[in-house]
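> call design_seq(struct)
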C-alpha cells in the first residue's frame, strides 16, 4: 500500500499509479481514499458521486480563494484534517446535498482551523450557486454530524457571499498569524 501512495505522491497521476503498480484501478482508488491523498481532479474523474461533488467543491473553493494552497498537491503529505492552507489557516472544504428533511449534514473526523461548507441550494442544483458557510474550528465537534437547517445559527450566522469568501478567510488567516506572533 505504501508504494501506491508513494507513486501517487510522486506522479500526482491516478492512471500512472495503476500502470506502474499493475493493480486494478478500483484497488488503487481504495488505497488512495484510505490514505486521504486523492487529488481534486482525480476525485472528480474517478470517485463516487459524493467524492465527485466533494472534489468539485474543492475545485470551486480553489477558484474562489486562489491564494489558498492545496495541501495534497503542494505538500505531498496525507492531511486528512484539512484540504487547503491560507497563511497558517488550515481549511477543510466540505459539500452536502440538500436533504429531503430540509437539512444539510457534515462529518468532521478531525478539527481544522476552519470549515468551509458548500450547501446545495435546492435538490438537483449541486454546486450551481451553493450557499457557503465558514465554520471556525472552535464550533466543530469531531465525530459528530453537524446538521444545518435554514433556521439554524450556523446557517444564519456563518453564511458568506462567494465574492466575500477570499477576503473573510484572508482576514481570519491574518488574525491567526497575529495571534501566534
Amino acid at each position: 500500500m505504501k508504494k501506491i501512495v508513494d507513486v501517487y505522491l510522486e506522479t500526482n497521476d491516478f492512471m500512472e499509479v495503476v500502470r506502474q503498480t499493475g493493480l486494478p484501478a478500483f484497488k488503487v482508488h481504495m488505497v488512495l481514499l484510505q490514505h486521504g491523498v486523492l487529488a481534486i481532479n482525480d476525485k472528480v474523474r474517478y470517485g463516487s458521486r459524493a467524492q465527485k461533488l466533494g472534489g468539485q467543491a474543492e475545485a470551486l473553493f480553489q477558484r474562489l480563494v486562489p491564494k489558498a494552497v492545496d495541501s495534497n498537491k503542494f505538500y505531498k503529505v496525507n492531511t486528512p484534517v484539512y484540504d487547503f492552507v491560507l497563511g497558517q489557516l488550515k481549511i477543510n472544504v466540505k459539500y452536502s446535498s440538500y436533504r429531503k428533511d430540509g437539512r444539510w449534514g457534515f462529518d468532521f473526523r478531525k478539527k481544522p482551523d476552519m470549515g468551509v461548507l458548500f450547501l446545495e441550494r435546492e435538490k438537483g442544483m449541486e454546486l450551481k450557486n451553493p450557499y457557503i458557510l465558514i465554520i471556525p474550528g472552535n464550533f466543530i465537534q469531531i465525530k459528530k454530524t453537524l446538521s444545518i437547517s435554514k433556521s439554524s445559527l450556523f446557517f444564519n450566522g456563518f453564511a458568506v457571499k462567494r465574492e466575500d469568501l477570499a477576503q473573510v478567510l484572508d482576514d481570519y488567516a491574518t488574525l491567526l498569524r497575529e495571534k501566534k506572533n
